[in-house]
């Protein structure tokens, strides 16, 4: 394992994001940073138990360190999902206590669990018992939901899951409004409260506390790391993935050069070729790369080529190679 909880080790993570952080996205992000912790999309425990496990849980070994986020509210099912997923070699098991989507609400898990912290603690305890020794079990939560007082909700949940043995708490520093706001609005409308997360860390100095929500770049992440143990980037890392290329230097203190973007694109083009040869579609990979050259000359042409060409029948890694030539040409014309 290349990272540890229980120690004050500065770290960044890419947040679990439904329909975004699939295995292709994670393979791509790993080309940009060797150390940042990557998360799967949330996988429901019932799906792990009854579904196509290789499709749901499989990933490329290059993705390590990689954490599996699980959704559910039944301790026994979550424990069984952990036992099943153990064979896949994940570096962490995380319980989703923060997603406000309608699908999650209908299953009474995700952010709904903020209302039943004792149940969350039982889920964590069951997951800990099922996980192999040394593999962390963590929680990702909100500061509260609906009319809850975050000063009570967050600290009550943290006390109970800490007693249950959680190895870390990642806090999205906003409330979730389960009634009245859409999942998209829940990512922007409720105000951020970073200070409450800082106070949580002060109350639990020996427990890893990570912060999430509204972090736009690695400079902001590093500022948070002066107060907490981890900083988690979500949409910023997805929409402008190039920022991850500086994570190993800025956050982890490495002295190696940043990844060469041309090399990253060539690696991903070869990956697309393999994926297509195995029966996949090019756009299943390239959709995660649209924002790679954010703010760079030729970025518009890059986006246009990926958006229009990768969806065509027979598209392969050449779509990325052609788009890269647009970047190279724009750079030469600007020189």
UniProtKB/TrEMBL annotation:
One of its GO terms (molecular function) is tRNA-dihydrouridine20 synthase activity. CDD domains: DUS_like_FMN (cd02801). It catalyses: 5,6-dihydrouridine(20) in tRNA + NADP(+) = uridine(20) in tRNA + NADPH + H(+); 5,6-dihydrouridine(20a) in tRNA + NAD(+) = uridine(20a) in tRNA + NADH + H(+); 5,6-dihydrouridine(20) in tRNA + NAD(+) = uridine(20) in tRNA + NADH + H(+); 5,6-dihydrouridine(20a) in tRNA + NADP(+) = uridine(20a) in tRNA + NADPH + H(+). It comes from the Bacteria. The keyword tRNA-binding applies. Keywords: Flavoprotein, FMN, NADP, Nucleotide-binding, Oxidoreductase, RNA-binding, tRNA processing, tRNA-binding. It holds the Pfam family Dus. FMN binds at residues 16-18, 69, 140, 172, 212-214, 234-235. The record marks 96, 184, 187, 300, 303 as: Interacts with tRNA. The keyword Manganese does not apply. Its cofactor is FMN. Belongs to the dus family. Belongs to the Dus family. DusA subfamily. This is tRNA-dihydrouridine(20/20a) synthase. It comes from Oricola thermophila. The lineage of its organism: Bacteria, Pseudomonadati, Pseudomonadota, Alphaproteobacteria, Hyphomicrobiales.
């Amino acid at each position: 394992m290349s990272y540890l909880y229980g120690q004050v080790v500065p770290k960044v993570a890419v947040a679990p994001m439904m329909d975004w952080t699939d295995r292709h996205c994670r393979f791509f992000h790993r080309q940009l940073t060797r150390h940042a912790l990557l998360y799967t999309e949330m996988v429901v425990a019932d799906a792990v138990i009854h579904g196509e496990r290789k499709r749901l849980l499989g990933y490329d070994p290059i993705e390590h360190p990689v954490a599996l986020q699980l959704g559910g509210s039944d301790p026994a099912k979550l424990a069984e999902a952990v036992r099943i997923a153990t064979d896949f070699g994940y570096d962490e098991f995380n319980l989703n206590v923060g997603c406000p989507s309608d699908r999650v609400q209908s299953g009474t898990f995700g952010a709904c669990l903020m209302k039943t912290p004792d149940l969350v603690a039982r889920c964590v305890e069951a997951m800990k018992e099922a996980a192999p020794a040394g593999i962390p079990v963590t929680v990702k939560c909100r500061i509260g939901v609906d009319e809850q007082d975050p000063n009570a909700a967050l600290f009550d949940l943290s006390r109970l899951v800490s007693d249950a043995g959680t190895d870390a708490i990642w806090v999205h520093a906003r409330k979730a409004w389960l009634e009245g706001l859409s999942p998209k609005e829940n990512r922007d409308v409720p105000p951020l409260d970073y200070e409450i997360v800082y106070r949580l860390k002060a109350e639990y100095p020996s427990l890893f506390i990570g912060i999430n929500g509204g972090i736009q770049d690695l400079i902001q992440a590093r500022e948070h790391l002066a107060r907490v143990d981890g900083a988690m980037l979500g949409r910023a890392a997805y929409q402008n993935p190039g920022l991850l290329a500086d994570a190993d230097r800025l956050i982890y203190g490495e002295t190696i050069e940043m990844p060469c973007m041309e090399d990253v694109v060539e690696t991903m083009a070869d990956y697309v070729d393999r994926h297509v040869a195995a029966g996949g579609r090019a756009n299943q990979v390239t959709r995660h790369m649209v924002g790679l050259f954010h703010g760079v000359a030729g970025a518009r042409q890059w986006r246009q080529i990926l958006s229009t060409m990768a969806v065509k029948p027979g598209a392969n890694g050449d779509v990325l190679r052609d788009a890269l030539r647009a970047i190279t040409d724009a750079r030469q014309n600007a020189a």
